[in-house]
Specification:
heterodimer; A: mainly alpha; 2 domains; 7 helices; 75% helix; B: mainly alpha; two-stranded antiparallel sheet; globular
Chain lengths: 155, 273
């Protein structure tokens, strides 16, 4: 396999990527017909800040926990009720459409498929496609079934 | 690949991304009724397919307009670009804390539901596709970044297990999100499951799959949007937190045994013929 290792972007590189991604998110809201685009700017700014603070914590906190963890923790904390300002955070983020926020990510995923990805995929062929479908269905139904059973007990 | 390529300087890539986004959002949300079921297609699905059409590695026509190595920049940007989604989803955990805490046991135990992955797909890999140890890498989990790191660390990148995990990873990259935006609407259409259970099942450890899944569910159950987002995000966080431990102590040892069992049965069956 000639998979080139993906280099992790630098701290400032991450900031640039976020700016581009969030600019595309703004464009998505515009194309989706959002009336007041100015109203969603604070939300985009907040998302930028939360993610960057999360990345900052990855650098300074011990334990080498993944960025996903820290970003999730920071976002949870700024949304906790009972702390001054968090109501504003929720209101500000709620002004954004999640559907429009995820659209640019899929565009990046599609344009991010490299020749090596496409080739490896062709080489593995249909077997992996069928297997992947079973893996996805198994994961989803397995978890849903388990959750449903436990909900039935605790409700 | 010029290391000096600056993400902001890649104007052709940005233009291509903008085209994807605008076309996708112009199409908007599409509902396709199939009998009593409805497939809900979100703009993200269209963004993905327009992106494939514009990707020079997929569509050779595009290589005149967009250099193929631009995909490298987009690929390394992806891990950062999904993070605002994580932040977006996690912000709603706090306000929904009581609802999340109320279903805490379900949230924890549904992680074990991920074993369903292996139960269903390992027999297919070993008995039908006659795979070797590739089957372990391919079916022990949903094969996202953490799974790859773990398998590569334990068995090595060029190992059969490594090939297995990469095969599913690439499938997941190519159509995982599409799958996770269509499957929940089909399963929800069966009306067998509590929307909260479906929301928890969305937490796969992959930000984009979780996002696609919970967004689709929220479109189906609009009155429960915030609870769905919160449960999916918590479940995703839980998978991130416990995933590694579950993998090391439960999933992988079980995968090894399950494989040996199925492979042994198959070898025996083959020698009997």
């Amino acid at each position: 396999m000639t998979e080139q290792a993906l280099k992790e972007p630098s701290f400032s590189g991450k900031a640039h990527i976020l700016v581009v991604t969030l600019a595309l998110t703004l464009l998505a809201h515009f194309a989706a017909g959002t009336e007041n685009l100015v109203a969603i700017l604070p939300g985009l700014g907040l998302l930028f800040l939360i993610v960057m603070v999360g990345y900052g914590l990855v650098k300074i906190m011990p334990g080498k926990l993944p960025a996903l963890f820290w970003i999730s923790i920071v976002a949870t904390l700024v949304g906790l009720p009972g702390i001054p300002g968090t109501a504003w955070v929720i209101e500000t983020i709620s002004a954004l459409s999640f559907v429009a926020t995820i659209t640019p990510v899929l565009a990046i995923a599609a344009l991010g498929l490299r020749r090596s990805d496409v080739n490896t995929f062709r080489q593995f062929g249909l077997q992996f496609v069928v297997l992947a479908i079973f893996v996805f269905v198994g994961t989803y139904l397995g978890s849903a079934l388990m959750a449903q059973l436990v909900l039935g007990v605790i409700d | 690949m010029k290391a000096s390529l600056h993400f902001l300087g890649l104007w052709k890539l940005h233009l291509a991304l903008a085209v994807c986004v605008v076309i996708a959002e112009q199409i908007g949300l599409v509902r396709i009724p199939i009998g009593s079921l409805t497939i809900t297609l979100l703009p993200l699905v269209f963004a993905f397919f327009v992106g494939l059409a514009l990707n020079p590695n997929v569509n050779r026509w595009m290589s005149r307009l967009i250099p193929a190595d631009f995909s490298q920049a987009a690929a390394s940007a992806l891990s950062v670009a999904v993070m605002p989604l994580i932040a977006f989803l996690s912000v709603f955990i706090g306000p929904q804390f009581q609802n999340v805490a109320a279903v805490g046991p379900a949230l924890i135990l549904q992680e074990l539901g991920n074993l369903g992955t292996m139960a269903l797909s390992m027999p297919l890999a070993v008995l039908v596709f006659k795979m070797g140890r590739e089957a372990i890498g391919a079916t022990f989990s949903i094969a996202r970044e953490g799974g790859i790191a773990f398998i590569f660390g334990k068995y090595g990148g060029g190992s059969p297990e490594g090939t297995g995990v990469m095969g599913i990873y690439i499938c997941g990259t190519i159509f995982g999100v599409i799958f996770f935006s269509i499957m929940p609407s089909l399963v929800a259409g069966l009306s067998l499951f509590d929307p909260r259970a479906l929301a928890m099942a969305c937490g796969t450890g992959s930000a984009s799959m979780t996002g696609a899944c919970s967004t689709t569910l929220a479109a189906i159950y609009p009155e429960q949007t915030e609870e769905i987002s919160a449960l999916a995000a918590s479940s995703n966080l839980m998978t991130g937190l416990t995933g590694l431990f579950v993998t090391i102590f439960i999933t992988l040892p079980l995968a090894e045994r399950y494989f040996t069992l199925l492979d042994g049965r198959q070898q025996k069956g083959a020698s009997d013929d």
